[in-house]
Design a protein that fits this description.
This protein is of the alpha+beta class and 72 residues long. The chain is built from three helices and two strands; from the N terminus they run H-H-E-E-H.
Length: 72
Amino acid sequence: MMSERGMVAPAADGSIFAQFDDILAAAAPELAGQVRAMAYDADTGRLDVAPDSPVLRHEAELERDEAGRSCQ
């Protein structure tokens, strides 16, 4: 998502978690305050995030399931 918007992720020395709110606000402002960083893989650049509330988690699961059905 960041590279699609011309951004570069910060170094993976823990600063990505410290700067997560700023990164999220710049990369996906519609998600600000709704998700939190869970894990970062420096080798692949993958940042795993999770919804902050059970309601958002349920909505994400429904969307994931719907997307899975449409790909079959």
